Amino acid sequence: MEKKAETKILCFANNKGGSGKSTACANLGYELAAMGRRVLLVDGDMQLNLSLSFFDEETVLAMAGSGKTLYEAVRSRADLSGYAVQTPYPGLELIPSTTLMSQIELELFMMTQRELVLKKCLRSVKESGEYDYILIDAPPTLGMWVTNIICASGHVIIPVEPSPWGLFGLANMFEFLDSLEDISDAEVLGILISRLDERKSYGRQTREILTGREGIPVFESVIHVDASVGWSQDAAKPIREYKKRARSAEEFRKLAQEVERKWQ
Predict the structure, then answer these.
(1) Rounded to a whole number, what is the distance in angstroms from the first to the last CA of the chain?
(2) pLDDT tens across 106-127, in order?
């Protein structure tokens, strides 16, 4: 019997809001699934943006109230097998979130080995070999919950908006990752430059600064400013499903190919 490849767990993290984490997580997951990979998305944010990338608001709220969300699993330390729902797209499933995730920090505070709760909840899912990738969308914070997400992951993708505040947030992110090196083996897979507007000088400068730093992996793929992103989110669809020839759809396809090459 052919041995299944090890499941890769990637998280999208950055303490600065608006960096494009949910957009990148949703569309990378979609493009990997379109390439024939089996992908599980995990919505780790109380804002539910990852869930809203694939389902309308009524459906997302129904899933949030179903009692089978990431929050309920983590607070009860439950095995996450059986929590996934099928998205409208083959090979792509989702573990939904709920606005109750706002309470997760308090729930974790009262637990032992609190930084490893999510890792244990995902253990059976990972070991089953059912998925090629598990992609986790983290909230824009750097607390115990994000610590959990990073400890559960093998690699971190850091989306960065090319702006002064974006670079400041990136510095904080690396400091946070350094503080976890005793409890986490997660490595930075790459910095993803998103919402790039090359008409603005600072956008070009940020790209040059990041790609010129030794020891900091930066994806060759970049995601430019594209009105199709907002419209696709309004339609609760991945960008390629909303507009097949959108610039950003092609950029996410190239990102998926680049991610795949990391393990070749």
Answers:
(1) 22
(2) 999 999 999 999 999 999 999 9
